[in-house]
Each structure stands twice: as structure tokens, then as C-alpha cells.
Specification:
There is one protein chain. This protein has 153 residues and is of the alpha+beta class. The chain has 4 helices and 7 strands, in the order βαβαβαββαββ. It has a 4-stranded mixed β-sheet with strand order 4-7-6-5. Strands 1-3-2 form a 3-stranded antiparallel β-sheet. Strand 6 and strand 7 form a beta hairpin. The radius of gyration is 21 Å and the shape is flat. The N and C termini lie far apart (70 Å).
Length: 153
């Protein structure tokens, strides 16, 4: 059944690679949400153009935008925006559990390593790369970011 063209389409997400876009498109269609991929063929033919044109855009009807976003969050395609993007500092005790999120107790976490200021200064002065990375964690279920700091006492 052909849908009328009077409903506008809105970009839900953009993807760099076609296979990622097709997985999200299939997931949305399995949940009954009508969607299309825009600029897919351009990226397939000229894959280096992906970032220049904004990637492959997954579009849904404006009326389905909110539902589509919730479906993608449920399928872990879109990040949850419930938490703050700032890193929360937690004190590190002797019995700290670094395998679970301290906020929701989920095991679906990731360790992030970013270069510290000290590492960048040493790199430019000596020309060598020392692994002085700042460690923080991200929970994919609740969206929180945290790092453990050592406390005295």
C-alpha cells in the first residue's frame, strides 16, 4: 500500500557505513515504522564521501519520529539522553566494583581512555609517547559517565 507524500520525512540518525544503516532500518521496519535511507548509493559508490555529505541518513515520517527514536534506544542504536554527559567523580574505596555501573548496576559498561595533559606535554617535549591516559567509564544502559578517584584516609 502506497503512503501519501504529504507527510514530511525527518532524519532520525546518520551512519557512516551502509551495513550499520541497513541494520537500524531493518530493526525499525520490524517494529512497524516506515523508514527510508537517503544518500546510501552515493556512499556505496564513493565511500570516502560519507562524512562529507553527512553519512547515510535514516529518515522516518515526522509523525513517527518520537516512536522511532524510542525504538532505536530500545535496540541500543541510539544513545540514551537521560543522564548528564559530564563525568561524575566517585571516591575509590578498597572494595570498589569496577565491573558494574554504580548507578544502575548494569554490566554493560565501557572503559574509556583519553590522553591526559601530562602525556601531551611529555610527548611534545621528548617526542616519545608515554601511556599516561585518563580513565573513565561509560554505562550504555543509563548513559552515565564516571571515573574513580583515590581518596586519602
Amino acid at each position: 500500500m502506497e503512503q501519501p507524500f504529504d507527510d514530511a520525512w525527518k532524519t532520525l540518525m546518520a551512519f557512516t557505513y551502509p551495513h550499520e544503516a541497513h541494520l537500524a532500518e531493518s530493526f525499525l521496519k520490524s517494529e512497524g515504522i516506515d523508514c527510508v535511507l537517503v544518500d546510501e548509493m552515493t556512499v556505496q559508490v564513493h565511500n570516502f564521501y560519507s562524512n562529507a555529505i553527512g553519512g547515510i541518513k535514516l529518515q522516518v515520517r515526522e509523525s513517527d519520529y518520537a516512536e522511532g527514536l524510542e525504538v532505536l534506544k530500545k535496540g541500543a542504536y541510539a544513545p540514551s539522553v537521560s543522564g548528564s554527559s559530564k563525568v561524575v567523580r566517585l571516591s575509590m574505596s578498597d572494595h570498589v566494583d569496577q565491573e558494574h555501573c554504580p548507578f544502575c548496576q548494569s554490566e554493560n559498561i565501557s572503559l574509556n581512555r583519553k590522553p591526559g595533559v601530562l602525556m601531551i606535554i611529555v610527548y611534545f617535549i621528548s617526542g616519545l609517547l608515554f601511556p599516561f591516559m585518563k580513565r573513565s567509564y561509560t554505562c550504555f544502559d543509563c548513559g552515565q559517565h564516571w571515573k574513580f578517584v583515590k581518596t586519602t584516609g
